[in-house]
Specification:
Blueprint: H1 3-6, H2 13-41, H3 44-61, H4 63-76, H5 82-104, E1 118-121, H6 123-130, E2 136-140, H7 146-155, E3 161-164, H8 170-180, E4 186-189, H9 193-202, E5 206-210, E6 220-225, E7 228-233, H10 235-243, E8 247-255, E9 260-268, H11 276-297
Parallel strand pairs: 1-9, 2-5, 2-8, 3-4, 3-5
Antiparallel strand pairs: 6-7, 8-9
């Protein structure tokens, strides 16, 4: 027997990485699940107060997010002062805190108490679309408490399908989706969405799609958003053209005077063109314009900390150099 034969083989690095990944996933899951359950066990107003403190700390400690948010606000509102932009961004983080507390209480909201949290505004626009029997494309954005839109819609008796991006942590992904689906909704993972979305629309179901995030080059088209070309998904427009499903814009809006949210529905007109690709482009641009109108009306309620203009048209330099 040689010396080499007498030395036990070392385990390959890949299993060690998998074990480390699995351990990290479990830790993340336990921390997130523990926090949500703790917040859910507290009275709602107490949970909101604690989450407000957490959001304030996050604003000051998470410098990168704050930097992205202020940069985006300078792009969108060059006429504002730095003070105005900072105030909007602080309000946005306060909204994050409110959103976390509300999400933690998803298991406790029902038809008897949901109106204390959110009410309908313009529901007739959704109902008219649903009556066509072709399903409904529920176009939405990262606006205010966006997780609440499909959830509350389900509690009010209209559960829908909605597209989500799969989290890297499978344990946390399953846990978060359980909360999202407590009111009867169904999560569809974006990577495998086309077939499931088409089936849902053929059955006359509603499908919620977030359409306000940057997409990679070649995955969308460039349309105007706050005066700058923004790479935008064409998915909603292609689905609407293929299926004939009517589109409604549905946004969750925090109403300071009411002290609750409004789930606002607006009908969206389909713009026809002879060329199919031109039709996709003009309607995608129209969807983005409608979202921008609401962002301008409620600037503190949109997700400014997302790098919305990261993908640039060919030949244009990057905007985010940090």
């Amino acid at each position: 027997m040689t010396l080499r034969d007498s030395v036990p083989a070392l385990p390959s690095p890949e299993p060690r990485r998998r074990r480390r990944t699995a351990f990290r996933h479990r830790l993340e899951y336990l921390a997130a699940a523990g926090l949500l359950r703790l917040l859910g066990a507290l009275p709602h107003w107490v949970a909101r107060g604690l989450c407000g403190l957490l959001a304030r700390a996050t604003y000051w400690l998470w410098r990168r997010l704050r930097k992205v948010g202020l940069f985006n606000l300078r792009l969108a509102f060059p006429e504002w002062s730095d003070k105005e932009r900072s105030e909007v961004l602080r309000d946005l983080f306060r909204g994050f805190g409110r959103m976390l507390a509300d999400f933690a209480h998803f298991p406790y909201w029902n038809r008897e108490n949901i109106e204390h949290l959110i009410i309908y505004d313009g529901f007739e626009n959704y109902a008219q679309a649903q009556e066509q029997g072709k399903g409904v494309l529920f176009l939405t954005a990262h606006f205010s408490n966006w997780e609440l839109g499909s959830f509350a819609h389900g509690i009010y008796g209209h559960p829908c399908y909605f597209l989500v991006r799969e989290l890297d942590n499978p344990l946390l992904d399953a846990f978060i989706n359980r909360y999202r689906c407590l009111s009867g909704g169904h999560a569809i993972e974006k990577r495998n969405a086309a077939r499931e979305v088409l089936r849902a629309l053929r059955r006359g179901e509603a499908v919620g799609i977030l359409s306000d995030q940057n997409v990679l080059a070649g995955e969308g088209v460039f349309v105007d958003f706050f005066g700058r070309p923004a790479s935008t998904t064409t998915g909603p427009a292609r689905l609407a053209r293929q299926t004939g499903a009517p589109i409604v814009l549905g946004l969750v809006i925090w109403d300071e005077k009411l002290g609750k949210y409004r789930l606002r529905f607006d009908s969206v007109e389909w713009i026809r063109r002879e060329d199919p690709e031109e039709e996709i482009l003009v309607n995608t641009a129209n969807f983005t314009r409608l979202i921008e109108e609401y962002v301008r009306r409620y600037p503190a309620q949109w997700l400014w900390v997302h790098r919305r203009w990261k993908t640039r048209p060919p030949g244009e330099p990057p905007l985010y150099l940090f």
